[in-house]
Structure formats: C-alpha cells, structure tokens
Amino acid sequence: MVQKFKKRSLPIELKGNNPRLKCEFVSTMDQYYFDRFGCFMIDSFLKNTPDNFVLHLYAEKINSKFTKTDKLKVYDWNHVCLKNWKDFCNKTENKKEVKFAKKGFAFLHALENIKGDYIIWVDADIFFKQKIDTSFLNYACSKKHLIGLFSHDYLNLGISAESGFVVVNQNHVDYKEFVKQYKVSYEQKPKEIERWYDGQVCMYAAKQFKNVNDLSFTMYDVDTHTPLNHCPMNEFLTHEKGPTKKNLVSGYFERLIE
C-alpha cells in the first residue's frame, strides 16, 4: 500500500523574497547531456530565476558555446575534479560508484570554493518551470537548517538520499564541518553505507548533524524515485529523471521554456 502524506502548499507561496541572498546553484553535465537536456535546463534557469541566482556549471568536455551572462559560470570539470576522481577510482571497481562520483566531486569543489549564502545542487535534468525566488528557501532550507534534501528512508534504502536536489546553508554554524565530513566520506568509504554513491555519501554526512530538513515528509506519496515531482516545489521545478526522458514527446523541453 502506498503511504500518503497530507498535501501541503508552499507555506510562503513565493512571499518573503530576499533579493540580497546569494543563491549559488550547481550542476554538471557532459556533451551528451548538454545536447539533449542540459541546454534546456540552462535556458529555463536563465529565464525563470532572478539576478541573485547564479548557476555554476561543471562542464565535462563540452565544446558548445554558452550564453554570456553573469548568471552562468562555467568550470572545466577535467581541470578542477579529474584528479580527485581518479584517486577515488583506484579505491573501487564498482562502475556505478565511479560514475556517480563525477557528480560528487563537482559538488565537493563547489562546497569548498563557491561563496554565497546557499549552495543548491540541481541535476542537469531539473527544469525551472515558473518564476522562482528566494522565498522557496523558507520551505526547503530555512535559516535554522544546515541542509535540506529528500532522504530515502521512505524507500527503506538505509542511509541514502535523492541527490538530484540538495540545498546547503553556507551561513550555518556547522557548514564547514559538514563539508569536511563530506570530503572525508569520499576519501574512505564509511562502513555505515552500502554503496559509495553520492546520494549515500551526502546523506551520511548530513546525518552527523542536527537541523537537517528532510523534504521527503512533504511528498504527496512515496511510490516514486523522483520526489521533487511529488511535492509542492513541483509547481516551480520538475525532475525528468532517468528513463522517463526517453519517453517524452518531441519538443517537450522546448515547450518548458517557451
């Protein structure tokens, strides 16, 4: 039987915007992802976010030209992440752990080097459907919270989270310790996690601290692996994750940003 939660709207309904807050969004993609989905994600971000939202993109061997704007900063993934990723690859033969670590080390570089008020990870297949501003933080990760994310407790997957959407409060007293714990968890696999995936590393690091906002409690139901599409934030964001992208009709992504 599917467990259901009481549907609740965004408590702020896009009220309480603070244009002085610096929201640093982070994502990564390669040429394949850029051509098929990522370029539309970038366009949707540029169209539907205010000037105090910046997208930091870790590009892996992308030859395409990017829109020139202060709202988009592009990093060469091979320059800033490759060495750490190769060191990690020497510690595991699991192909999925190797694959997902590319994302993990991009996130780590952002946590250590980008300065703002919030670091917000969004997968390359998350799209901004409508205008959004900082008021969503009152729902996702308020000032008292260190981190907001969807845990996988509802799926009984142990220490794990949906890592496609993660909000970290850089002004929180535990921020630096969280970053340190995240980094250490990639240097040596914690015995508490089953798989060395970025979602398990992130959830393990978060569980070492208080004031974690588990967004899974805001979901309408739990019969899903895309929780962002089953919570109030889906009014503004959608996550076209995994095989669902292959089944979308032609022109779907173009229409998202019309």
Distance between the amino and carboxyl termini: 39 Å
Rg value: 17 Å
Mean pLDDT: 89
What is the highest CATH level, the class? Alpha Beta
Derived structural class? alpha/beta
Residues in helix, % = 25-40%
Question: Secondary-structure map with pairings?
Answer:
Blueprint: E1 23-30, H1 31-48, E2 53-60, E3 72-76, H2 77-80, H3 82-89, H4 95-113, E4 118-122, E5 126-128, H5 137-140, E6 147-151, E7 161-169, H6 175-187, H7 198-206, E8 212-214, E9 237-239, H8 252-256
Parallel strand pairs: 1-2, 1-4, 2-3, 6-8
Antiparallel strand pairs: 4-7, 5-9, 6-7
Helix pairs in contact: 3-4, 4-6, 6-7
Brief digest:
This protein has 258 residues and is an alpha/beta fold.
Can you tell me about this structure?
It is a single chain. With 258 residues, the chain is α/β, with parallel strands linked by helices. The chain has a single domain (23-256), classed as Alpha-Beta Complex (Spore Coat Polysaccharide Biosynthesis Protein SpsA, Chain A). 31% of the residues lie in helices and 19% in strands. It is built from eight helices and nine strands. It has a seven-stranded mixed beta sheet with strand order 3-2-1-4-7-6-8, sandwiched between helices. Strands 5-9 form a two-stranded antiparallel ribbon. Helix 3 runs antiparallel to helix 4, helix 4 (95-113) packs antiparallel against helix 6 (175-187) and helix 6 (175-187) crosses helix 7. The protein is globular, with a radius of gyration of 17 Å. It starts with 22 loop residues before the first strand and ends with a helix.
